[in-house]
């Protein structure tokens, strides 16, 4: 499997942006929501509307924590999970420092980082979106 890069993401975004909104199935808010990339921690979405520029939404949540099917969890699993939380909070902090709006959604406290695109983004923007590997 190839490592995810900003170049991979910009190519996929450019392909997605060619989708015709008129012939697409939109949600009730008039949006077309496409998944740019997904990991066990992160989902990066492209939200397209005919009435507004595209936006990017990054969703961050804990991965499925029932990996071993036992409790208490083994210490090495807990250490790995804590390390992943730290890496992903750093990721959110980087997004925030580059102009993303941060929010918490729902009872499960899903972290979201949103950014409205005002022009065709450059590869450097997509490098920023590449989630940490765990």
Quick description:
With 134 residues, this protein is of the alpha+beta class. The protein is 31% helix and 28% strand.
CATH class: Alpha Beta
For the record, give the distance between the C-alpha atoms at the N and C termini, rounded to a whole number.
15 Å
Share in β-strands: 25-35%
**Structural class, judged by helices and strands?**
alpha+beta
Count of separate structural domains: 1
**Cα-based radius of gyration, to the nearest Å:** 16 Å
User: What is the average of the pLDDT values?
Assistant: 88
Give the biggest sheet. Answer: 5 strands, antiparallel
Chain oligomer state: single chain
Instruction: Write down how many β-strands occur, each being a DSSP E stretch of 2 or more residues.
Output: 5
Structural notes for this entry:
- The mean pLDDT is 88.
- The two termini are 15 Å apart.
- The protein has a five-stranded antiparallel β-sheet with strand order 1-2-3-5-4, with helices on one face.
- It has a single domain, classed as Aspartate Aminotransferase, domain 1.
- It is an alpha+beta fold and 134 residues long.
- The protein contains three helices and five strands, in the order H-E-E-E-H-E-E-H.
List keywords for this structure.
134 residues; alpha+beta; Aspartate Aminotransferase, domain 1; 5 strands; globular
